User: Fold this.
Amino acid sequence: MNNKSNPSKANKGGVKSFFKQRGTKRGAVSVLLTVLVLASLVLVNIVLAAVTDKHPLYIDVTENSSYQLQQETKDYLKEISEPVTIYVLQKETDFESGDSNNYKYRVQANKLLHAIENSSDKVELHYVDITAEPTFTSDYPQVDWTQSHAILVTCGDRYRAVDMTDMFTFDQEQYNYYGTVVITKQNVEQAIMTAILNVTTTDKTKVTVLSGQGEQDMSAFTTLLENNAYEVEEVSLLTGKIADDSEFAIIYDPDVDIDESVYTTLSDWLNNDGKFGHHLFYFPNDQHDVKDFPNLNALLADYGMEMQYGYIFENNSNYLIPGANHYLSVYDYAEDTTYTDGLRNKSIPVVMMLTMPISITDTTMAKPLLQSSEDSILFPMDMKEEDVESFDPEKQILNGAAIGIRNDGTDESKNSSVVVIGSYDALTANYLSISSYNNAAYFVNLFNTLADRDDVSIVIEGKDPSANELGVTSMDAIAFPSILVRFVIPIAVLIVGLIIWIKRRHK
Assistant:
């Protein structure tokens, strides 16, 4: 009788024995868990890839949150009730292309576009290569397609083109001397939100800029008004008339006085057949004696105000601009908050230069808007050099801007007003564009308040994507989350799983 064991039975027994071992069971469980975790991570990556195709995810660790929208943008986007489409007129890869300097601005621009889309379920972002789809432009005949446009924003049958010059500021000297296009600042959020505001606003408030008295250029401010959905037109009172549906008229730094017929025209327009509801803004010319403008002075007197002959000379160092003289200073908002309630940041002041003060002659009609410190003085324009030494003026609060209001005296009546701003420089591009001053926001808010508009003013500061924090650059801020999810976490889990399995296998 053969007592030798059967090899096949021995092997079978060895395999069964192996799988019955406690260490093997633990190892199998570990391997199974590792496989399940890896499968889950693969699934998460697939889902994230699908989601980020539509809604890119990234962590912004730049010092000034370069890739995040400002709060006023988020607030406005929440209020949009109609579908808005943003068409980038390039492939996405082409839109982000550029050299090392321009690339960071273009990437920032693209991230902000995605952020705008993600902030509202009413906004969609699409990329259209119009060189490959030339018929796309035929649906928008009001756009001058002979010009190069970067983006088109649409809402229903309303649309507005946005140019590269709207979104970026370029180094003009580099271009003039070397033909090189170098971006120095981005204004993407401002440009796109301006376009959205305009295409979603169906009933624009009309503003008439009056000419015929040698007025100065105020294109910086009229552009700001247009960007905030106001319709601006220019009318010469010598040959035309203010439209009945125009709620605002502006006389900006006139070189000569209006005549009596224009005075009557403006008075009748403000009265509006007893319906009121019209507003005149007046920016006086500081190069002439106020006595040279008797008809404009009479119009101001009808609304309880009077121009003073001189400049506001600010003596309080807290109100002065570093490195500037006493005629350039910031102003306090008046105690009456009617015209500042809509401001997002009342701690930011308005700045004005060579400001002529306004006296309130009738407090039942007129009140101040902007005021100097109590240490200011009125410095006469005709002060002679020999009189300076003996000059002993009274320190006082002076009004840099004021408003006079008239109505029919009933609670249901609309108001008509005359607003006097003592410095025409307050609306020049220099002061409207500086974010450390509130000029742009304040004056747009003043118009919005008088027009009884609830719109969010789109006055937004551009950000520099070069800002860093904790040693992480803006480009790293974009790439890091993707690398973390796609590579670092899966590899780390795999390594930890293998270590655990090996340790348990050898116990």
Summary: The longest helix spans residues 22-54.
